Structure formats: structure tokens, C-alpha cells
Amino acid sequence: MHRHALSDAQWERLSSLLPTKRTGPKTRRGDRLFLDAVIYRLKTGVPWRDLPERFGPWKSVYNRFANWSRRGLWRHIFESLQLDVDDEGSIVDASIVRAHQDAAGGKGGSRPIV
Fold it and tell me: pLDDT tens digit string along 28-56?
């Protein structure tokens, strides 16, 4: 299994949301590898042309992605996977903002304010 690939549990959840009716030629590599290619590109930020060869021709992956976008399939998938949000919730933020060591004062340390 590759680093950016879907797990079996994720694939099970997604597979029922994918279109069953095909509009173009049958794909040789399958839906799961196509979704892995899209996820790989989104996580790494590589251009379409730099997709690894294991995903097949980059142009085929791009064309299928663009077709799904035009048909609204991505919107359908994202809306189906969206979590229900309750009215009450909490936000936990664990970020820390630290000043750079040079922000402690100028040369010779800080001077007291009188």
C-alpha cells in the first residue's frame, strides 16, 4: 500500500458513491486507482504531468477528473461524505505562537520603561 492510497475502509465507504453508469470507454485500471491518483496529486501538489506511472497516462487521469467535475460528481461525493454538525460544539486549538529570540530586545538586552 502506498502512502497516499485509500485504505480498505475508506474505499468501502467511497465505492458506493461512485457512478455505476459509464459514459466513456471502460477503464483498465479501475476507480480505486483513479481516486488514489487524484488524492496523490492533491496531497503532494504535483502537476498532472508528474503523476507516477503506476496511475497510468496523466492525460487520462486528468480528463476523467475534469469530466467528473463537469458532471458534478465531486460535489455529490463531498456532500455525501460531509459530517452532520450538531448545534453545540467546541474548538480546541493547540497552536503555539513563539517570538523569535531576536524579539527579546535590541543589542544589550531590553531596557526598563520608566
Answer: 678 888 999 998 999 899 999 999 999 99
> How crowded is the C-beta side of 51, counted as CA atoms within 13 Å?
23
Q: What is the pTM of this model?
A: 0.63
Task: Please indicate, yes or no, if residue 23 is contained in any of the structural domains.
Answer: no
- Whether the Cβ atoms of residue 4 and residue 36 lie closer than 8 Å to each other: yes
- Are 91 and 23 in contact by the 8 Å Cβ rule? The answer is no
Task: Return the C-alpha torsion angle 9, 60, 66, 30, nearest 10.
Answer: -20
71 lies in a domain?
Answer: yes
Q: What is the DSSP letter of 91?
A: -
Residue 69 lies in a domain: yes
Domain that holds residue 61: 28-81
